[in-house]
Amino acid sequence: MFFERPKSGELAVLVHLQFSHQQEPDDPREFEELALSAGADPLTLITGSRDKPEPRYFMGSGKLNELRDIVVANEVQLVIFNHSLSPSQERNIEKELKCRVLDRTGLILDIFAQRARTHEGKLQVELAQLEHMSTRLVRGWTHLERQKGGIGLRGPGETQLETDRRLLRARIKSIKARLDKVRKTREHGRRARTRNSVPTVSLVGYTNAGKSTLFNSLTDSDVYAQDQLFATLDPTMRRLELADIGSCVLADTVGFISHLPHRLVESFRATLEEASNSDLLLHIIDCADPERDRNIDEVNKVLEEIDAEAVPTLKIYNKIDLLESACGRIDRDENNKPVAVWLSAQTGEGQTLLKQALSECLAVELVDGSLCLAPNQASLRSRLYQQHAIVSEDFTDDGSSIVRLRIPKPDLMRILSHTNHQWSELKWAG
What is the annotated quaternary arrangement, including any partners (predicted)? Predict the structure, then answer.
């Protein structure tokens, strides 16, 4: 019922109004890209300005008549607003135009429904769609009366609308219970990584900033990456090896967007919690986008909403290949700590610098020295080799070995615990 979509693009008229109370005007180009991403075939973009929305039709009567003329003349199937409409406004406009009307929230939900691939992703999208649809059910059932009585026709004494709302509430409750299980599973995974001292790095950023392209390049993966809004919806994790750090987990997440529907943030909380529980966030930024600064602010707003604003963040200015004079570099603060990396995920320029910056940001105390190992410490020596901690090794006349170590101290302490050795028992050379 909620997921039927046409096989081909629908002829659509886009409506974008500017209101005087808005401090920063919205970019209609992003709205057009959203419509194209949903599979619509935009006929034209109607723009206008008002002091405030009209309560009944959202727009003024003159603009409504202009819109009606275009819909009738071109047999338009769909009108999409770059705004959030109330259920009554949506119904009133549909009655006037005699075609389907969709607001910005419904448009984004439709794109998410197309992109979801995993079972978890589909559940999250369905939850957001059902909660959005619950306030709009009356539109489909205003023609039905209370269920009929009589032999074989007696119902529960409620209207079809009430029945549907009851069934919908039950489905929403069921989906939330299943997503709670997903959240608990993710928590178990995070606790396991914490016990094993494996840091997690999450990619966040505005939609179409190049997160998936960078993710694929760093991890040799084949995550779906296209030049379109919300190309990535389902979270993906891969292992990444870093110098002096060892293994870390890199997580690709869904892109953010201005006026991201609150229902989506709530529905995807199980996924977005991965970012809020990370050791480091990589904020991917399209440095060639003229709306770059606004996009950064929008991402920061969502990070605050999911309680991730306190997580250490490294800014990644991507797509330097689209700038004339930019080259790969690391920007540092007054303490010489990396705060930003300039690179191109498409060409690979600057990615070595990114790995260097990651190693510095995730760095823990590093054990770098020569350790004397007696012949009866073979198990410890074996574990150190398995961890790739031994840089070189020399042997003495009595059969002992002197190994040059380079390993994070937490990893060494874990190896010592597994082999029943104590830090105080170690003998260091030089």
Answer: Monomer. Associates with the 50S ribosomal subunit.
